[in-house]
Amino acid sequence: MAEAGVLYGVGLGPGDPGLITRRAAALIEGAGVIAYPCLAGGASFARSIAAELIPAGAREIRIDVPMTRDRAPAQAAYDAGSAEIADMLEAGADVVALCEGDPLFYGSFMYLQARLAARFRVEIVPGVTSMTACAALAGLPLAARDGVVTVLPATLPDGTLRDRMSGAETVVLMKLGRHLPRIRELLADEGLTGRAHYVARAGLANAACLPLAEAPPVAPYFSMILVARESDPWL
Amino acid sequence: MAEAGVLYGVGLGPGDPGLITRRAAALIEGAGVIAYPCLAGGASFARSIAAELIPAGAREIRIDVPMTRDRAPAQAAYDAGSAEIADMLEAGADVVALCEGDPLFYGSFMYLQARLAARFRVEIVPGVTSMTACAALAGLPLAARDGVVTVLPATLPDGTLRDRMSGAETVVLMKLGRHLPRIRELLADEGLTGRAHYVARAGLANAACLPLAEAPPVAPYFSMILVARESDPWL
User: Choosing among B6, B10, B21, which should be mutated to test the A contact, i.e. which has the most A CBs within 10 A?
Assistant: First the structure.
């Protein structure tokens, strides 16, 4: 019986193929089997980032993840994808699972890891997060010296967000999208609008970076708000 | 008069040259002038990460940063380094400034940006942070779905650390080094030892990854503690 293959969880960075690491690029270029999440029946952002590196003959495992409020369909999709990946690994093939951003920082790879890490060898290749890519685009320090960074999904309820932002220094609000109007009000209430910057699609050609006060009324899914620290006297 | 050059602030990732991005690698390979911080009179970790990519003929600007408690000598070193970089930029040469990890996430590049961004065009290339590299090595999710991440330098006073850790989910304690004994006690007091993992030198050949309870008594400068979230029912 063949030795089982290795599952590689590969971070691709925020969208610009130039922000793929050399290790990730080498794994993709050498891959016999790749796996990636797709919007059910639609495109895969992860695959689009890596497209130019994927070998022509590679076998591709699509994981169609429905974006429903009920989590059961998405979990079933990851169950099915994991079963298909497990078959490949058991047959001795390595599998390269593509993941936007970093695999373990709000990354889709965690759903595969949770299902497969007990049975197979897993190696994770970290990637550039959208958080630091947005900071780079905005030219805003996230933290220096003894600075504190708090990362909050905008999907959390108002009360939780208020509690976590209270007294915080740098705040990163991820997963902004349709929550922009609510977050805008909340930041205004907390007196943080002046320190808040809106960044959308960092690393993509149509990126945007504006003070929150000038942000459009509607935000795309790939957008965030950075609440910068007051200026740092040590810099 | 020549048009001024561009200052590139290039993140190199946590130490493994494989975790350099393709964009960063291309900029370094094409650089006429590179700049990097060194321990005063000693080695440069940033330069060592990128060493194989640096062109033989490149001019190198060393910024000797003294590790003193008083910040004035380090600030004087960045003043002098910035002046040397400014001369190059004014003469029309681009300068590639190397930075461990990500330039804006506890990165040294911020000291150059603060001095030069008003006068010159600056482009920042984000890098893989030690935070996600440590998570990858440990196989520990930092955050999924609506998870919150709090990043705290271990250099902060006990009271501040306690306040910030109270009720937090994932906690990342950066800049551990000589603070390990104090942080170990603090986590024990807060009942967090069981969720705490020690990771040292992620991305280097001599990396270590252990439950905190099994960590050595003394930690190297490049080490951190990840306090993982309770298991996530959605994974």
Answer: B21
